[in-house]
Amino acid sequence: MKSFTIKLIFVFLCPLLFLTGCSDELRETVAILIDPPLWEESTTLSAAPTVEEMIESGSLADDGTDGGIFEMGSEPSDEEVRMSTSGMFRYSYSELNEKERLLYREIYTVLYSHADAVTISSTDADQVDKVFLLVMNDHPEIFYVTGYSMNKYMTDGVTTSLEFTGTYDKDKDEVEEGQKEIDRYVGELLDGMPEYDEDYRKVRYVYEYLIDNTDYDLEAEDNQNILSVFKSGKSVCQGYAKATQYILNELDIPCLLVTGTAKVTSPDGEVLKSLKAGTGSPDLKSGAGKEGEGHAWNIAYVDGEWTNVDTTWGDASYRNIITGEVRNEITYDYLCVGDDVLSESHKIKSSIDLPKAVTISKPVW
Questions:
Q1: For 182-221, what is each residue's pLDDT tens digit?
Q2: Domain ranges of the chain
Q3: Class of the 184-348 domain?
């Protein structure tokens, strides 16, 4: 029987997978739009280069801006990992097996370099999806990626290769301009921060600064990335959490992005099931929404302990919109608290095990 190769094109809309601050109705609508996938026949396999070939040919530039891209296909040294990436990379990387680590390095390099149509080492679409989400969670500096698409090549019903392309909502010039805005904001924050000895004081300063300079806004542009906070000062929980992660990493305080769900209650104790689509007003349904709405926060390594930080919930602008409470002060109930406190309202959804978090003893301010 004559064999043939088919090319299956998957298009994954990343915000649907880790989007926060949007309604269940929107998620369901878009899920319908992307199902079923698009099929296309091809008589030959793709000639797209692998990541290794791109680096060897120089098409992936090693410009030194991230400390140098390490060689793909080989185990990076601790120093290469430290210099080539930020945030959760060192933690999540250690939680992956050897094949997933290689895939992580490949996806990171493709996205960082704004590349497309690159043949990757994995032929497992589920594995690619898992690792892609980890890369995006780990790297708030890749603010210009909204998802990915993937060409899947099959022969006799067997997947022979996957071709990976990042989905970029900004071109390289726009990325450069966006990074300037980020650098300006972070530079001003760091210039104004006193010389603290304890990590806790640094984290509290960042927590307060972000809350004072950010308004919770469901309609904010770029609200799923750090640009919303650093450029417009308006965002949702994903933007708050990624901004917190980015700045704490700049301070050499390891900080992980955590996604999951959170149950929000109104002042009278009613559970808020969701936000009414397009209105920004709460939909109060007592006892509904047991898991809560999609949410993002952080786990940071503070003074020798892992601890939870939820900058969004510390902001009165969030509480006023979501719960209807009228308040102006910063809430410190979600700054450096343990799992025993946060687990009452927050539920983690992660493909890897995350560190256990404890409440940090606050120094006298």
A1: 999 999 999 999 999 999 999 999 999 999 999 999 999 9
A2: 5-168, 184-348
A3: alpha beta
